[in-house]
Amino acid sequence: MEEPIWAAGAMSGTSFDGVDAALVKTDGVTIEKFGASAFRAYRPAEREVIRAAMGRWPGDAGVAEAAEIVETAHAAVLSGLAGAELVGFHGQTLAHDPKGRGTYQAGDGQVLADVLGKRVVWDFRSSDVELGGEGAPLAPFFHFACAKRIGAMAPIAFLNLGGVGNLTWVDPRCEQAEDADALLAFDTGPANAPIDDLMRARTGQSHDEGGTLALAGRADERIIGEVMERHHMLRMPPKSLDRNDFDDVLTLVSDLSAEDAAATLVGVASEAVARGLQFCPSPPERILVTGGGRHNAAMMAQLTARTGVEIVPVEAVGLDGDMLEAQAFAYLAVRVARAMATSSPYTTGVAALVGGGRISHPSGA
Description:
By secondary structure, this protein is an alpha/beta fold. It contains 13 helices and twelve strands.
């Protein structure tokens, strides 16, 4: 096994808040150490350009402008993290249609390689999709390494609550992430995206801070039940979603008060997780929650009530819920550089183990 190296990873999610970046020292199997991290917020005007490009593909109006913003923001935050030999650049997902046109993350890794003067691993998802996979979620191999690092002895789950919710079931008793029984991963359903969209439309705020609005409301279980009958909820995993796949749920809550609408959308997100647990090989000992949704008290309470499983933020086991995805792409960058798998039939539904990603070298190097 090669020696561990420091790698920097960066992630810009579907909340459009900005770019997270973090350092990880790893050999691509175990996590030796977590390093410094940083965040670069998108300015309001930048956020609107990116939002306007959602659902669009290369060559469509507004995509080049969004990509330039993504590249500039990533270059700025990654330049401030010293010591990395390698960079993992996820980019900004604008469109995700794995069974159709494919998947597209805005941002060119070659641009970053030239600016940073370092090797950059990027375009992590395309190879998986081309070989029949969903291209998402991609963090499960990293989650397996995290489960080993925290000393988990029984199956646990990692739940990332970004714009979309995704769950990774991990059995840390397995030797490696590639083992057939080690992992199962899938997108559970909508999470923060419809709640954030509701807040912008009803209150002008970017999100429901702390879940305050949802806590003041009452969920409409009829609407929640209706959403649970959608095709995605009934599909066997692995399975993935685009941010806007459930944007029509806002019309279902249009006649509710803002408080009841927020509570209902929280109920949709948490019930989707509860329904998703039925697909897991065995119940997880507990669910470790990462992403912005862990700050929503209504969401955490509903997850506890609807799943019957212990729900805790990842900070409870010494991990950083704000930076976990950025750290994941640092870890995955090392795996790509060392020709190791980054997804499997049990994480994305791809036909065989796949090591995705392109590697760009600084021009002239």
